[in-house]
Fold these 2 entries.
Entry 1:
Amino acid sequence: MKKAVYTLLFPLAAYLLLMTQTDYLHAVAENDLFVSGEAFFAETIHSQGGLWTWLGCFLTQFFYYPWLGALLIVALWTGTYFLLVDAFRLKGNLKLLAWIPIFALLVSVIDIGYWLYYIKMPGYWFSQSVSFFSATLLTWVITKLVQRWWKHDIAWIVFIVVYFAIGQRFPDFTHRDYSNHLLQLPFFIAPISVVLLPVWRYIHSHIKTDKFISTSWLDDIVVIVFLLLISTAAYFCSFRNANFQTEIRMQAAIESYDWNKVIKEAQDAKNPTNLMVVFKNIALMNTDRLPEMFKTNNCGCLPETGDSLSVRIAQIAGPFIYYHFGQINYAYRWAMENNVQYRPQTRNLKIMAQCAIMNQEFDVAAKYLTILRHTTFYKEWAKHYEPMLLRADSLHKSEEFRQIAPLMNEDVNTLDTDNSMPEQWILCHFADLVHPKTPKQDHLAICAALWLKDEYATCYQFYNYNKNYPGNSVPELYQQAAIMLGTREDSPINLQNFPFDQLIVTRYERFNSDYSSMSNAGISHQEIGERMREFYGDTYWWYYYFCDFKAY
Amino acid sequence: MTKTQRITFILICFMLLACGRPSVPDSFQKESREPKVMPDYTNVTIPANICPLNFRVYERGKEIAVRISAGNLQYTYGDGMKVLIDEEEWKELLMQSKGSKMVVEVFVNEGNQWMAYEPFNIYVAEEDIDPYISYRLIQPSYVAYGKLVIAQRNLTNFEESIIYDNTLVNTPQQGQCVNCHSYQNYHTDHMMFHMREGLPGTMIVDENQIKKVDLKTEQIISSGVYPAWHPTQNLIAFSTNLIGQTFHTKDIAKVEVQDTESDLILYDVAKNEIFTISNDSNELETFPTWSADGNTLYYCSAHFEYNNDSIKDGEIIQRYRDLHYNIYARDFNQQTHDFGEKRLVYDAASENKSATLPRVSPDGKYLTFALGGYGCFHVWHSDADICLLNLQTSETILPEELNSDRSDSYPSFSSNSRWIMTASRRDDNNYTRPYIAYFDKTGKCHKAFEVPQRDPEYYTLCPYSFNRPEFMIESVKTTPEQFAAEAKKEAVKAHYIK
């Protein structure tokens, strides 16, 4: 009984560790693709290590339900452990050493962080574990067969031969000119630790003969300490950046049109990334609260990747944000580019299908929906969209059409390029709109100008807004911007007769006087920003003076 | 009967049932229209050496029975909603219907009722088609590329094999783009393709010897781009192009590919020498092609004068709809390699159109090209159609049977001039598929058919475009590994002569 408990300790720890990252695991399934049928099999099997890739893709899809994917991978690892123990004839506490390759495989699943979007190997999350399991299984079978007539310990030789013979592909973590070789370490540790198993056994047997004192309680301590050690090490090797997880959760919430959850996630974040700010503003825009964008933190930072990986929004969420800002062609383009450059991903297929529907390219939409129909977990998703191909009313009643169509400016077609900077391009595109056509576009045009700190565009869109909505109350944010820009000496606009809210005017005067007094006292600009944040952090002025807009 | 025998008997019965043909229903209700089938093989004309035209029926129902009749031959098929034709039986049907037609009757079981649709015909021409085609398989991306393959397909069966695969040479740091495969006079012992980015160069097979050359010299604006092998001499005419692309924010054409500059050069394969054919700074010359006798070089050219030389890229983007390519020809002296003066062959600009990708039929009678509203990259222009110019009468036709309401481009003739292949986006406006039409001796086109695949759903599930489909009368003998080994070598620099 005790043995069984000890054996299950590490799988349990691994499972629990995986279950702390359920958002990430679901994103893994979204960022990979498995299509049933001969065509996908033929396409996958053709490349080096194709069988493992295919099996990897097949199993990775089960992370759609993180508990299920985690269960499968832990079962696979546990099976590998038992095969190693038996093939290498490990006894007593030496069995613990068979957990080392499993530890390495676990780390390889949870340590990659933003490489999720950049790995070029489909099915990465399972393919290494499956090929390792297969190598171990073959070693076990061959060893058992050979040992019927030859009693020598040959498991390690068999393992080396089999490990190289099965032709698996070694994962690579290279993006542009940067390679992270540290992330490859687990794939060295796993086989080397197996090959070293007979060495430990040899040393152990010699210690025993030298009358090494071993007692039951000491064994127990060794087991517990060892398992605790590798579990803790696995935890510390995992990528635990809170913003990374939040970005994934926000994206999932946007997909299900749960705008309140998106806003809540943004509010809970202390130091959001630019992408989180974009997500938050999409949610505000779709709940008609865009003028509140600076009341919630609008100061985005660069993502922390834990290495020197240069993360771009174009790759991690380009298609997604283009789509939600109604830029259908650019969304489609980046979904296609990312699918081609990195690996086929379900999320890109989904966006391509949605874009095709919004563009009324129903034949190509049908193609993508048919492919998604051939997946295990996205059949229902495809079924939801299929009626839109046949009936215009079904499309027009849909949530996405309601949200996105008002952002699609039918009159404007220009030839342009985004230089791989979606956020910058979207903001410039809307800030420069000469004739916004819907209320949503009116608000976005002025907010994009504010976001970019583009004074000329802000003034133009402010006038536009007032012209389009005469007599309407002007949102506080727009007044804040107009007061600030209108009172400057080099202001391109004259707002002397504009009926500003006096409270806002007074607050701006106080902002100026507070700034001046602190500045005169020799306090640094950055420090002033921190001190004024409490009182003015919800204003455009604070954003304008203390926030750097960094697109990436 | 022993237990083993019983099991064997049951298994055999099961297998026979599984292999059985569906039978045509005795009673059915008539539907007064042809069934919707994909690919659309209704009333197409095919060669007698083509592989089976498998298709899927897109009608409401669970199963089908399809009877194909030719002369006194009749076979029935049905696998769910798919028709998967036995290759041997298909050959018999083709033999019976050569120069005539086969009749296809489709019956669909809607659950409790069989429906019989109007039969359709498949016409079988007297003339065969070249047994091979080749194409580049590429996902229709814009800037990015990953796996790229040049593949060859045997049209008489379903075999496809790889000519070149960039994954054999790609590294994590550097991918490789491959493009513009081309053959001399439908033979593969003289062929070429380009490699860009990783391990760049032009791969040339010259009498089965492989060599990798670097065609970029100081005197020309780029390396060789769009190629045309001279039909008999060891010469290749290339365009040299500075190519850029920008993206439509709204138009479903999505991307505009433009040349800011382009010229024409002649490359002597044996001597590794380059000669300028044409480099007028106010002309964008491109897409060279030879007449079958090798005495004329046809090419496209757009007259374009920049208002401001310092912002060429920006200006050509602004004026993208002003680019109209005409087709010109220049005589070629095969002894001296001199070119005559250019003469206008087809004036597309005067019709506010743009003509690209010309090809001359091997019998010398027709010139085919892609005709669109503007620009040079018609694969992204849904208004692009294939046009045929009778070189004897100068009459042009836009054959409806060959064209669609979506992009049709990259036309080419088979070696007997009786078949025209086009890279068409008619299926879904985004993915290019090879379509072939019979072009009879009277100059009439017949309804085009999509190159058949074993699985009728293949094109739906396939993420690749079939780019630059080319006819070949034989397969490529050089293996992908041989090409890859050569690709890893340093390219030999070509010499610019004049």
Entry 2:
Amino acid sequence: MAQRAIREYDGKQLFAKHWNEYFDGFHYPFKSVLVTSADELRQKAKEHGFEWLNQEPLVVKPDMLFGKRGKNDLVLFKVNKPGDVTLEDAAKWIEEKQAHDVTLLSGQHGHLTHFIVEPFTPHTQDQEYYIAATTVGEDDVLYMSAEGGMEVEEGWDEKVNEVRIPINMNEADIEKAIRANVPEDIPAENREAFVSFAIQFFKFFRDMHFAYLEINPLVLIGTDAHILDLVARLDDTAGFMMKDKWGDIEFPTAFGMEDQSPEEKAIAEADSKSGASLKLTILNPQGRIWTMVAGGGASVVYADTIADMAGVKDLANYGEYSGGPTTGETEFYAETIFDLMTRYPDPRGKILIIGGAIANFTDVAKTFTGIINALEKWAPKLKENNTKIYVRRGGPNYEKGLQDMKEAAERLGLEIHVYGPETHVTDIVRMALEDEKK
Amino acid sequence: MSRLFTRDTQAIFWNNNKSAIQRMLDYDYVINRETPSVAAIVAPTSSAKFEKFFWGPDEIMIDVFRSTKEAVEAHPNADVLLNFASFRTAYDVTMEAIAIPNQFRVIMVTAEGIPERLARTMNQAARDAGVTVIGPATVGAIAPGAFKIANIGGTIENIIKSKLHRAGSAGLVTRSGGLFNELCNIIALNADGIAEGVAIGGDRFVGSVFIDNMLRMESNPDVKYMILLGEVGGTEEYKVIEAVKSGKITKPVIAWCIGTIAKHFSSGVQFGHAGASANADRETAEAKNRAMAEAGIHVPESFNDLPRVINEVYTKLYNEGVILEIEEPEIRTIPKVRRPKNFICTISDDRGEEATYAGYPISSVATPDTGKTIGDVVSLLWFKKVYPRWAVDFIETVIKTVADHGPAVSGAHNAKVTARAGKSVVESLVTGLLTIGPRFGGAIDGAAKYFKYAHDNDMTPAEFLAYMKKEGIPIPGIGHRIKSLRNPDLRVEGLKKFAAEHFPETPLLDYALTVEQLTTSKKDNLILNVDGTIGILMVDMWRSLGYHEEEIDEFIESGTLNAFFILGRTIGFIGHVLDEKRLAMPMYRHPWDDILYDVHKAEEL
């Protein structure tokens, strides 16, 4: 995955860290804290440098990558009237929101764990702007609007000006293009300031390797720039060269997805330590058809085929192993799947697809040794669950791998159907489902 | 460029990825290529000059360089770069290669996870320079029967099973590398194989996209129909649809987009590659499959149904006579067991009818009627080249000049003492030769090394003297026991005269003479001596023969100059040994009175 979302708080911190270098002529009064509980907020207010938490009216929002927080009623900016939220109001609100799981309008469901707390910024509607940048096709695109706030999405075409900036455009032309496309409804007296901010915003977006960066609204009061709401995604492949500039940045998982199972976490951890690739997502823990597929492309066609032929409900997991994993890594991966797939018995029995295309360089016999080791341990459980196994694979040393698998089937008394490259890659899915009907 | 690769295509392989290179060479051998598809390897941290690889049952050497620039200087015909650098350096390597004018036609980038902004910059720069980039994040491409990149196609057994050893009729483009192999297998089972195939790469920003490759295949007469395997995410397939609709692509196209599963999951699950994520309805696999079918592209019911459609299209084209029966070519087989050779020889060969010196039969250089002399033999066996007459004559002049310098010098003295001890010619000779080194004969090496260094660095004579003083080394090649400007060394005069008449130019000697002017102004006998003159003129000779400065430095470092002294002086030493044999002088014992004894008595016993 290349583009990954970061927290609003971390995004603002990046602005603050590099402000003087990029935003000439503007001041950014960065006041922001990220807390995981009400008590942490109360504690923070006692620290030096955070006196403002006691002195100023506050705004509190969850900071967990999801948008439309206003519409989800998850922004606290008033008790009775806007700008009257005290520290204790904020703390109590956090406690209240953490008491239960929440379900968003989008259907995402989960527990709120991170909140961003900031001073309330009084301003007028005409001081609000919208600015964002991302990459569309091969070009960067800068979006600008004289209207900030969440209504901007309604009436996008009328309100937002777009500037396409090709990757090889020089600095002077970039400045010219932005200047020429600044929304006409920005009053003349604010125009120059906005042009200057927009140009610097784009350079910041570009140099920091953002994939997406949106301030909505941006509030310009004199030379003060207030970033009231921020959405940001970084291109994490640039991480190796941005270590100092990004600092220790976190890439949280999407809201509602953070409850990864221990098995998924274990595979993700093994993946991060290995030169090979190990991926696992559980789609339906009670699903009947489990896959253990080698290769990113092949794993997709198996998932496609199972969803087509058996229906998506039966598909228990998505994942892949590739890039020449060791016997040990493959064994661990296989054991994890065997463990998961023998937890919920199904009257129709279970199907395990050990699939894969014809490998370029992965040694099939070596990876199959890992799978066979795991089968040895889990054979009784797999039999208990009435599991039928279908194998299809090609590549270096595949004859030995397939032969070993056949021998293991006999030795362990497992029902394993073994096929090589002469059989179409996903045809074992059809065979498995047809065998079942017999 | 209607064909991506031909049987003559040669590549520079960036990174010494031995197993991938060996697979390329095995492929070359099997398909009867005449030249290896890898011309050179670039390995920036390697000190090796070449790497050995198997070529069928034999072995060959592939040149290794530290930079792409050096590699292309030596192999200007290599117009493909296989960039196997890591995601950290792949961008720099590509940009450097694009900047070399009119060199690379195709650059393949294998690294996955190059920062997107860098990938875009790189792809744009390539487009501006007219270079086709394959990748990043790819296993590459293949033109069956002509050229194969690295690991694509897998093992040689699989390549033959998948009919990738000779051109078929399909043009194949995929994103995924793993499924590329699978598709080749499917096409071999259901049709007659592929004529050209490219895995464009799994990253979000890749250099050449489906349409770029398919437009080339449209103009490639070997391609009779095309197969496209797309993925969920992105809009690249729509460009192909446009080209089919507008008639830019007229050959039949079969296509399928994988990732239909993604519609069942709103977000959070990444199916497949980094590039595979649908941001809009248009980018889903269903929408693309539907749009392709509507445009008249052959779209199967599912991936499982793809073989049937391929067979259908192929059979129709075959029946129409568009596709002809392919005559299966002869292939060579790779032996199961191969043993790497322990020794390498690049100067002579005794296996044929007649032994050769650098490819020249001995009889063609030995007898007087050949016009060849000992200088020619030295140039063949030492430098693997036929040197021009003036250089050959110079080498002989040097050998003759250094052949002997009387019985008193250390080597001759040693040889004589050993001969008098009753030892054989060879034993006596080597005791003499063993004295040759930094103090005896070494000034030739030293003069070449230091004068060249000073000249390369544009030092004035005064700066050079100051530099040598700082180093604490007397200038090698300067100074004589008795000879001076007024009483010149005639050997030196002879060498200078020869050089003046026959060398194209002598910049280093000219420089050395300005140094001599300065040194002799300090002391009369600080002249350029015979060792210095030889060393310096050798450098001038090599420069005139077109050697690179690094090659000349290497000659100096490896002791080649010293070798001329060894060769010449061997003649003299053998003379002294034979002289002793003839004279039958008794065992030599040095007289006591010629030795200063200063040994303290033991304190106690």
